[in-house]
Amino acid sequence: MKHTKRILAVLLTSTLCFGCCSAAFANDAAPASVTEAELLRNVPTENVSITSGFFRDYQRLTICQIIPTAIANVEKGTGGMPNIINAAKMHRGESYSGFSGALYVDSDVHKVLESMCYALTIDPMGDSAVLAAQEQIRSKLEEWIPYYLDAQDTNGYFDTYYILQPSMTKYSNVNNHELYCMGHFIEAALAHYACTDGTDTRLLEEAIRVADHLAATFGTGAGQRKQIPGHQEIELALLKLSLLCQTLGAGYAEKAQAYSQLAAFFLDTRGDYEGRAVDCDAWIHWQDHMPVAQQTEAVGHAVRAQYMYTAMAELSCVDPARRTLYASALSSLWNDVTHTKQYVTGGVGHSDHMEGFSTSYDLPNDKSYCETCAGIANMLWNRAMSKLDPTSAYANQIETDIYNAVLGCVNFDGNKFFYQNYLTSDTGLTRNSWYGTACCPPNLTRTLLSLGSYIYNISDTALYVNQYITNEAQVAFGDTPVQVAMNSNFPNKGNGNLTLSMDEATDFTLNLRMPAWAGSFTVKVNGTALRLSANEKGWLSISRTWSDGDIIEFDFSMPVRFEKTPDQVTTNIGYTAVRRGPLVYCAEAVDNDFRIRYATIDETAEATLVWTDSLDGAADPYGVRDLYQLKIPGKKQNHNGTEVVTWTLIPFYARSNRAQCAMSVYLPLVFKAQELHQFATPTASYTYPGDSPLHLNDGSDSPANRWTSWN
Ligand SMILES: [Zn+2]
Questions:
Q1: Which of 47-51, 419-423, 644-648, 674-678 has the lowest mean pLDDT?
Q2: Residues ≥6 apart with Cβ < 8 Å to 337
Q3: Ligand 1 centre from 19 Cα, in Å?
Q4: In the chain, what are the domain boundaries?
Q5: What mean pLDDT is reported for the chain?
Q6: 250: helix, coil or strand?
Q7: What is the structure's pLDDT at 20?
Q8: Ligand 1 centre and the CA of 125: distance in Å?
């Protein structure tokens, strides 16, 4: 439902908060204590259909716009697909061209392929645009698959960077992403198998040949390579493939075991293997500086690190020995990242130079690289952790990530992308149509289309509602299937309901996540309000015998919160971020006729919400342009003193959809260094080319370099 310019006063609260905002709960990760019976399971994507609302809109945008954009880009010269085609032609004895693009470009195509398969699992619900896009995706898949099948070497090896350059020695450089690319291929093949309901095994068989080749090549046996991948990912793929093989019958049991053992080998070999380069920087970059079980501090490349932590957590779910071995490291690493190394948006990895972690509390806003893939890796890690430890902090973190660190990767039109997600810019930032290293856009598409797997966890006796996303899901307690239909007005409003359908009444505990940002709340069952408070794990728990047609209503207030970082984050002293519900807000100069770096925002004033049907005024066929803006009073300085201004803020994900202009998440609470131009307009009879007197004391550059010789 859309409301035009509806204005509504809301409460303001001021909070000291950091990172995932889950400090309201006991949220130190503690997976060590979990027993086999206490392990939770994610309700998988195939059992959850996102049926309407905010993320249904984004799934439609993904299928109808982003995936066609991605296909067009990977089919271009250096986009990756030409390498798959040329490798196939080479193996067929046809004339072919050499390798083009970045050495890891195979992985971009594989992730597009994986996303295309997920797109075919989304119920079109009669939407003609979705149906037409799915038809085109299906036909493109059939065009690609024969090339994929022929591109693989006969021994199972599959990386076109080496296949098309036969003089190069395979596996000679652990940083050349061979295993990363093969991992993404295995994940794509699993998505294809799933989207055909197991009826088309062509890509799965190819993936098994890849995994068999790797299992024969790497390990501690005679003639095997005791070596690790420089960019982690293969571990996750092998664990997924192992789980599928366990369901395929006796012939696959050995493979299932071999693949999970290989994943464990790649993890446990880090920090200790033959031929390890004598290069400490590189070790840290790909977390090879010590055995994983001893790692307590997140270092190096943020995507590699978090893919590895995810694999450690996923392996812990299926391997009791590894659960014990990794428990302390996972707990320390999670606390380190969550409490000291992430931005309010959930973004991690601030360093432009190596896309990685810095020291604790070193979180400069103007250098907040925050690769989209690092935000996605954080989601994967937290989803895996949530199975080991029934604490709502992981779900709170995933919510912060998806809305803030990840979603703003894409523009409203679905055809331009951010790789980096900076929290501030003086000059404004624009998304690119594609990238030479295009890891982020297809990582976004595969995440949005598999978002159903983040909504629920389940045990034998409890259902955990992690995310409030409109969906229909199938779960079961014992032999009793239960259908859950959730309606949610998130992220704009905190209310919604769940309706349960089942043939016979059944006992289980329904655990609703108490959002870390929520103010007051009400929960009703069949119209009767319950007296509930969040337990020590952050859940609102309702244990009872549930019956067909039971309705649970929830309503969490969404006060506007001013969230500050601890004083250790020195760049944020005197600044605040603004959050409402799951959304972190930002100011863009296009909405504010004062300089957003220097005006102040009043955290004690009343904010108003203003609904807009389309932020940029453009037609909105996918429904992604409608949102609440926030209006909050503040002050700016002028030659008479100060004057009142009104800040206009928009959700951070919606930034950079209109003008290229200054933008900031952190806003001043107190006046910063005053600028001369606010009191007088400087002029000069001569300026150096490209310079201007207005640059004088603008806070953006050292005046000493340019102005000391001037009166
Ligand atoms: Zn990326």
A1: 674-678
A2: 298, 306, 348, 357, 378
A3: 21
A4: 44-197, 469-514+520-556, 560-672
A5: 91
A6: helix
A7: 41
A8: 31
Backbone φ, ψ for residue 433 (5° rounding) = -70, -35
- Other CB atoms within 10 Å distance of the CB of residue 337: 27
The predicted structure's pLDDT at residue 27? 54
H or E element, residue 521: strand 521-525
Of the pLDDT bands very low, low, confident and very high (cuts 50, 70, 90), residue 25 is very low
Place of tokens 């220097």: 598
The single-letter code of the amino acid at 537 is: K
For residues 522 and 2, what is the distance between their CA atoms, to the nearest angstrom? 24
**Looking up tokens 């998440």, which residue turns up?**
665
SS3 at position 489: coil
Distance in Å, CA 211 to ligand 1 centroid: 24
> Does the structure show a pLDDT above 70 at 707?
no
Residues 6+ apart with CB under 8 A from 445: 62, 66, 67, 70, 111, 112, 115, 118, 119
pTM of the predicted model as reported, rounded to 2 decimal places = 0.92
Pick the CATH number of 469-514+520-556 from 3.40.10, 3.30.870, 2.60.420, 2.60.40: 2.60.420
Res 152: pLDDT: 98
CA–CA dist 19, 583 (Å, integer): 13
Which pLDDT belongs to residue 29? Answer: 58
Task: Report how far ligand 1's centroid is from the alpha carbon of 101 (Å).
Answer: 16
Give residues with Cβ within 8 angstroms of 201, minimum separation 6: 193
State how far the alpha carbon of 66 is from the alpha carbons of 335, 444, 449, in Å: 34, 9, 11
How many angstroms separate the alpha carbon of residue 638 from the centre of ligand 1? 43
The structure tokens 């929520």 sit at 518
Structural contact between residues 10 and 580, judged by C-beta atoms closer than 8 angstroms:
yes
pLDDT value of residue 683: 74
d(CA 99, CA 177): 15
- Structure token pair of residue 359: 């020291």
CA of 417 to the centre of ligand 1 (A): 10
Q: Is the pLDDT of residue 628 over 80?
A: yes
How far is ligand 1, taken at its centre, from the CA of residue 419, in Å? 6
- In angstroms, the CA 267 to CA 444 distance is 26
Per-residue pLDDT band at 406 (split at 50, 70, 90):
very high
Q: How far apart are CA 290 and CA 228, in angstroms?
A: 13
Amino acid at 522: T
From CA 697, how far away is CA 676, in angstroms rounded?
6
Model confidence at 194: pLDDT above 70: yes
Question: What does the alpha-carbon distance between residue 442 and residue 184 come to, in Å, rounded to a whole number?
Answer: 11
What separation in Å is there between the alpha carbon of 360 and the centre of ligand 1? 23
> Is the bond preceding residue 491 a cis peptide, omega within 30 degrees?
yes
